[in-house]
Specification:
Layout lengths: L8 H11 L2 H8 L6 H8 L4 E3 L14 E3 L2 E3 L3 E3 L5 H4 L4 H10 L4 E4 L6 H7 L4 E5 L5 H14 L3 E5 L9 H6 L9 H8 L2 H8 L22 H8 L6 H11 L2 E7 L2 H9 L4 E4 L13 H12 L4 E5 L5 H10 L3 E4 L1 H10 L1 H22 L12 E3 L1
Helix pairs in contact: 1-16, 5-6, 5-17, 13-14, 15-17, 16-17
Length: 381
């Protein structure tokens, strides 16, 4: 399968599956427990139907948005995700470059494989730092100060991961950093030698944001152990309020799903919230972000920028979220599969397709700009 044959999320997923060893593909593709929430994330969009208007004289399409003070040329951004250089040796470099070319925001994770500083040099577009709250308060302060020095525009604290989700696909293959594979996992690497050659002929794998803080070279510190042993399960609203004051700029909570929590985020001075269930990778059986969007926008949308992610595979999904009041929509697996399949050209093609879909669908809806998308355009099945 060639990149030019990819026309949708599902095409990129198939291409990535053909290239990646099973344990790595499953790490991207998998979710918690029975993966019910993972499936619900996309299915939720199907409960909502678009009602187009015609003969509106739609000429030029303006799909730009402003979210948390950042001007984006399109209403989607590349959500920060971990371990990207495992999927393709370019990793976050490819994502930063592709996002920069498309004039949109991207993020680097605490578990990113390229440094904040290098990503900042690659793209002049808005950059998010996705941050986990560690038991070591000194580490938290040091990482925030580093982000300031790197010129990060938005601090994004993930609040739904005080412990790791039960990702059974990873348990079956022994996926960990460094690898501590089961026999079944090793066999899956053996049948994809091209990935191994690529991995071994580029610079060694590392987690630059955690350099000097975490020893990833001794023993098998799995992702689940990182979450279980290093992150603070006692994270409270008071802790976050202190971080918001210390950061002193655009501060976003990722993983908010209830109206009460959205209101608390406003009270402590956050400028944005991301409605997210971590791609279905944490609490299985939870509702989707799209399910919660209207209620939360109604409660706090006039006081804080409401964003959502999870299950977005089409331009029509984006338009539905924007019609309900989301200021922007985060993409995760949507760009990770093309990254794994083809590096920077893959991410660029995926963003090209999304931009084309949004533009075409806005024309078909009779909307020339994002602010013309309203709930009057929606019906529920």
């Amino acid at each position: 399968m060639r990149l030019s044959d990819c026309h949708s999320f599902h095409d990129f997923r198939r291409m990535a599956q053909a290239r990646l060893p099973g344990p790595i593909f499953d790490y991207i593709d998998g979710a918690a427990d029975d993966e019910v929430t993972y499936r619900r994330n996309t299915a939720a969009f199907e409960t909502c139907q678009l009602v187009p208007n015609v003969l509106r004289g739609v000429g030029e399409i303006d799909m730009s948005v402003t979210v948390m003070g950042q001007k984006l040329a399109m209403p989607v951004y590349c959500s920060p995700t971990a371990l990207q250089r495992l999927f393709h040796h370019e990793g976050e470099r490819a994502v930063a470059a592709a996002a920069g070319k498309h004039g949109t925001m991207f993020g680097v994770s605490s578990l990113g494989t390229v440094s904040l500083e290098e990503a900042r040099r690659i793209s002049s577009g808005p950059q998010v730092y996705q941050f986990y709250f560690h038991k070591d308060r000194g580490l938290n302060r040091a990482m925030m100060e580093r982000a300031k020095q790197a010129g990060i525009e938005v601090m994004m604290l993930t609040v739904d991961s005080i412990t790791g989700g039960n990702r059974e696909r990873d348990k079956r293959t022994g996926f960990s950093i460094p690898f501590r594979l089961t026999l079944a996992g090793m066999m899956q690497f053996a049948v994809k030698p091209a990935w191994a050659i690529n991995y071994l002929t580029h610079e060694s794998f590392k987690l630059p944001q955690l350099d000097g803080h975490v020893d990833m070279g001794g023993g098998a510190l799995s992702i689940s152990r990182y979450f279980t042993e290093m992150l603070d399960p006692c994270l409270s609203w008071d802790d976050v309020a202190a971080m918001v004051r210390e950061w002193g700029g655009q501060f976003c909570l990722k993983g908010v799903m209830s109206v009460d929590d959205a209101k608390r985020a406003v009270e402590i001075g956050c400028t944005g919230i991301v409605l997210s269930n971590h791609g279905g990778r944490q609490l299985d059986g939870s509702c989707s972000a799209f399910d919660q969007l209207a209620e939360i926008v109604d409660a706090v949308g006039d006081r804080i920028d409401v964003i959502m992610d999870g299950g977005v595979q089409r331009g029509t999904h984006v338009l539905k979220a924007l019609s309900l009041g989301a200021k922007a929509v985060g993409l995760g697996r949507y760009y990770l599969f093309p990254l794994a399949a083809a590096g920077q050209p893959g991410v660029e093609r995926a963003l090209d397709l999304m931009r084309s879909e949004i533009e075409r669908d806005m024309r078909l809806m009779g909307c020339a700009s994002i602010d013309q998308l309203t709930r009057s355009n929606l019906r529920y099945a």
